[in-house]
Please model this.
Amino acid sequence: MKNVPFSMKTKSLTLSLLIAALLSVSASAQSTPPPQSADSKNTSGDTEYVTGKNLLHGRGCEKNPALALEHFKKAADLGIVEAPAAIGYFYAAGLVVEKDDAIAAEWFQKGSEKGSGIAKFNLGRFRLDGKGGITSDEEGVALMEEAAKLGVPEAHTILADIYFLGEHVQNRDYSKAAPHVKAVAATGNINGINMLGVMMQQGLGMERDEKGAEECFRRAAMEGDSKGQSNLGQILNPTSENPARRIEATAWLIIAASQLDPLATRKISELEQTMPRKEFNAARDKADEFQKKISETRNKIPNSP
Model:
């Protein structure tokens, strides 16, 4: 990989086992039972699954994880796709049962074979991390790809790291990383936005796009992210021949340095020695303006739906 002069939080994109989202909304995971269907077996299974969800989360009833597990098992017996993943969650987390990665993996495998994206994601994590007794980078990556296609957003996050950093694959592959990085950025994930900016600026897996990169870094910077601020300051270039651009670049680096970003801190130390005092003071004033805008943006109360 070429030397990329930008601060990147690529590592922080990697997630651990998807546990909390195991019981997120799915085709048969609404907070209330779905409408009656002609298939009484599926209707019964949906009801068991929803009841398990409600008992697990305490929705409309007292929390009762042990009873929830029984309902999930009934739902699994009745063919509900997401039920095996829910059961695997209990064993992976050690909730009301003894923690057992091998048993969790077996349930994730069952769910994966039924087509559950969550089960595929978790089984993929197990294969990549060697949990449950089997380590397989090839199978783990393949499962993540399947989970991503089934709409599990966390799978895009994992795959972005895998291909960008060259983890669990033979070589980095920026072309394969690109669609996953874009998918992560589209969710508003700041680390994904920063990574996309880096790829645009360097032409990694996509055409070089300085303007697009600057927009990514600016978006992250305005969210108060120190890496985005540092990256924006660098791409604007504090030694630019354009005075306005030079001052703005330094302002963003000052803000990033105030949040202890190491690269920005080093750069500001240099600029304090080399930049004309009048310009550096102007950059400080500009940094104060940006800080106020950032605070206003982050403190806005969204309109009621």
Notes: The first helix runs from residue 40 to 57. Confidence is low (pLDDT under 50) at residues 1-38, 301-305.
